[in-house]
Amino acid sequence: MERKVMSLGRSSLVISLPKHWVRLNEIKKGDVVSLAVQRDRSLVVFPSAEMKKESKEITLYADPKEKGILIVRRIIGCYLNGYSDIKIMSEKIFSVAQRKAIRNIVRMLYMRIMESNAKSMHIQTLIDESKASPKVAIHRMHLLAHSMCRDALNSLINQDIMLAKAVFSLDDDVDHFSFFLLRLLRNATQDSILANQLDITPLDCMDYQTLVYRVEHTADHSANIAKHIIMLDGSRQKIPDHLLALMFTAGTEALKLYDRAVDAFSSKEVASAVEILEQQKKIEKLDREIASKTFMSKQKNPLMICAICSIRGSIKRIAECAADIAEIAINRAYRMAT
Length: 338
Hints:
Translation Initiation Factor IF3; four-stranded mixed β-sheet; 8 strands
């Protein structure tokens, strides 16, 4: 549809609004509409000055025999796709396991239980997404994941079980950020109003989403290191000192790469990102050395060998997350300006 630009007075240019759009939005003479300039220099017309959006609602029907994990995954799917009001209904009374699973995921997603009875639950998110800042939330998520990785390595070299338990308990906090950010970014890709309010483009959403996943994975691998430290302590097993030193060195190098990669993502420093990709090879070399000394060791305890393999695997994957983030940083640096 096209409109001819007409002159009004000495300095104003005007176009007419499409009649179908006017009727659809019940616009009358004297009503106020809102205009927003997009990043691509296009102009969006909103039917009201407030630009209010109705919250999306959905009702999920749970089978009495349905496993709690399935209900949880369905709630997460609805949450990530922008539903603010979710009702869960059952023909019979929710089982204890179902109710516990629902309450746990509600807490994880920063939602609230508005109404509840034996056969139904109404949950709602109260966050105003238009006032959120993806950059601030991602930065906080990164700081949390970084501290988890640092403390996991310190608990490894010092055999500090209390510190390892503290690290393991923080994994849920990173998941809080992850779910919220993924919902926010998915909504922004579909809602130009929200994207404009957040000052992000669809390409930003794609890059940020990948970054969120890699930061979450870094936190997961840090929690895995802590978990195996706790497990070995419970079985009264101790990793040999020479292997501990090697793993700590590899882990420290991996953490440095991860930290630099996130900085490169923010600053779009290509040289730093390329250097990270090159230095990842150092971690791979250390990983092979740890593997070789593990299987050549006199230590034949299966639990010990599995724990060492799992820890070195997590360290290697933290370095891989850093490399993935560095690749995004390079791609972002050469993105065409809009």
